[in-house]
Amino acid sequence: MDFHLQLLNHEELVIIHDIRLPFMDSFFQIDTLIIGRTFMVVIEAKNYSGSIVVSPKSQQLVRTYKQTDQTFNDPLEQAKAAMRKLRKWLFKHDCNAVGNLLSYEQVVFTNEKTSFYVDTEINLLADKYCRPNALIDKIEQLQVDKSTKAIPFSEVIRTSKLIASSHQPWFPKYTKLEHHISDLRKGVVCVTCKVGTMSYTPISCKWFCPKCKAISKDAHLLTLYHYALLINETISNKQFRRFFNMESRSSAYWILKSLNLPTLGSHRGLVYSLKPFLIGRFPFTDSF
Ligand SMILES: [Zn+2]
NERD domain location, by residue (predicted)? Predict the structure, then answer.
């Protein structure tokens, strides 16, 4: 399923996998949590083989495999319980903005060879069970729905970081934040159409979107802001080129130099501090 989720436009979306959070005297687990600026989705992924019949009314799932029936609890109930606990957890940890987002639960059957049937006449309920491809459609619909007020993306990031750092693995081990939070989409996302990936023209020092033909002088600022929030507070020339999909070392040098950022180290070890982005020194950060 991770493969399918990579197809999503990661702009302003955080995807966290395999979280286990302390709750009262116990823990609760979430397979995948997606947080956007207007919604959050708890996903319960099931990799059953065979054929499946879900009966939401009796909150049961019957799996038939090699002529044997096996009964499980309805995974949607699991997802709903996880969402209720997550909300309480969020309010307890001062993450009210995310806690108050519109929330959805979704069961995803990841085994493509498995057939499934939901025994209900309520379409809205049947829709809560799907395959990975349909999940992408659903998330994309939520992303384009502008009918609810969006919360700042910085709040999404702050909450996601708190969730990832509060994660308690079954076996205590060193886990990096990046392991849980998927990379942002690489490259400069067009600030006009939000779809195209802009390319840099060194001669004019401008960004160009092949999709909507928009031209921008400072499209890299938003991407750098997201990098600072989610990945690191410093960036080297090499990291910049990798994240911005840019080959030219000198273009990267001139872009970074033009920002007058504080620097640390020297020569090849030189890194630029992105702190000014985090304290709102760049005017655009006010609107996020
Ligand atoms: Zn564009």
Answer: 1-109
Type of residue found at 275: K
The fold for domain 188-287 equals Arc Repressor Mutant, subunit A (1.10.10)
Report yes or no: 87 and 98 within 8 Å, Cβ to Cβ. no
Question: Which residue positions in the chain have pLDDT lower than 70?
Answer: 1-11, 169-185, 280-288
188-287 has the same fold as 2-49+77-168:
no
CA distance 246 to 252: 8
Name the amino acid, one letter, at 222: L
Q: Write the DSSP symbol of residue 181.
A: B
Closest CA to 148 of 211, 103, 95: 103
The CATH class for the domain spanning 2-49+77-168 reads alpha beta
CA of 225 to the centre of ligand 1 (A): 19
CA of 102 to the centre of ligand 1 (A): 28
CA of 236 to the centre of ligand 1 (A): 27
Amino acid occupying residue 216: S
- In the DSSP assignment, the letter for residue 287 is G
Q: How many residues does the chain have?
A: 288
Q: What is the pLDDT of residue 9?
A: 57
Select from 213, 166, 204, 195 the least CA-distant residue to 19.
166
